[in-house]
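Components:
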Amino acid sequence: MPDSAASLLGFDDRDKGLPARLARYRPSHWSRRRFLVAAGSVLAALTILALSFYSFHQSPPPLTLVDEYLPPAHSNRLDALVGPPTQKFRDNLRNDTQYMSSFISAGWTNDVMTYGNLIYLAMITQRVPIIGNFTPSHIGGDAGTVPFSEVFDIDYLSKAIGSPVLEWSDVKDPTSEEIDDLGCWSVWQAVQTRESEPRFTNALELYGLDISYTAGPLSLQKIPGYEHDPHAHFWSIAALTYPSGREAALQPPQPSKVHGALLPPDEQLACFDYLYYVCAHQSFEYEYDLSPAWRFVVKNFRFTSRLQSIAEGYLKRMFGVPEDGPVPPYVAIHARRANDFSVYCGDVPRADCFPTMNVYARRIAEVQEDTRARLGVVPEHVIMLSDERDPGFWDAVRTMGWYTPDHTAEDTVANYGRWYPLLIDAVIQASGLGLVGTDRSTMSLLAGRRVQDWNGGVYLNVKWGTPHADDH
Ligand SMILES: Nc1nc2c(ncn2[C@@H]2O[C@H](COP(=O)(O)OP(=O)(O)O)[C@@H](O)[C@H]2O)c(=O)[nH]1
Ligand SMILES: [Mg+2]
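Structure:
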């Protein structure tokens, strides 16, 4: 044991030459000490035996060691089901297992975070999460859905978090014409003041689920009745999945859309309309280092090797390096500029509201300075990724000498489908040594956290809204 470790543990070689004041610890005194220690131990053991005998006869029989709610430890995530997808979902649920599901309805990254929240909630309540496909919003509602497992490695995820993660297509045959009734909680009705309906979902069209909702209790909202923050805490929602919390919160269910069914929230398959606004401690918690949904779940959403290698092909062609050579280290910029962001500019003209190329260049230099000091690497290549359509913007990017994937020349949509310009851009944002993102964009935020946690790189955001917003 090295000296420092030895002294940390309380051992110290200097004790070998015992001074007079420590004489009672000399070997001649040890036999009496040993006797006292032995007698004490026997007495303690007898007391413990007596106490445990007493408590055994006083309390109910000891709990069994098998926790009935623990998702069974399957080596294959699909063992969490009875078998292959069935016509009615219920026929595929194992009676020794509890499940949880929820739905999405926002931009892609928001939806990634919502699935992260669902899986984290399922983990802390020891249920098996069932997630759905990604549904299109910003890429055009007619683009069709894409399976979670086409984007992220679901087997890796299941292993990494120690719980099976299922997709609806594993549970219920996607070609089934059956419409299943299901009772779910509406968190949305409890946490916001603007709409009276449950959050809109595609559960009926996508999975044939005809849902009867029960409004969650108003106490779910972090600050009940506060119109500007619809967040709920994970454990407030989790409470609804245990008998005591469930019974205290039950109220009359609302009729389902197709069958007019009136069902209380299902106990075997706990489900919720919408889980985007959920946190353990702080609203919009993915922005903070403590975010448990990031640290325990979404950090393990690794892109499939197929998607990663498609994106790497784009990088190599962009940089002009051979297909079998390495991708040089680079910094990516994510410039979020579409209309859903420019509405926040108010009266400020777009040109003054969004960052100029020089503002990005200053942040790039800061990233390079950090990686040079910390890693001894200066990533010289810079890639711009953006939802901007204005050709003038892209001309300015080229003038800076920055790269950009060319989804038109590469014919990305024809080759891979409508989702792939977005997915390839997301992988590129996540695979550099640095990301310069757009303040308030969740797409930047998740890409930045990937760069930090997966690549040991740097994530900086550019502020916007006025010409000097990013001055620092
Ligand atoms: N292809 C591509 N699409 C983008 C880019 N930035 C934004 N988008 C689109 O805009 C959407 C932004 O919504 P979301 O993912 O929820 O992130 P946020 O709105 O920035 O917080 C994305 O999902 C894309 O559909 C980009 O750099 N490349
Ligand atoms: Mg969004």
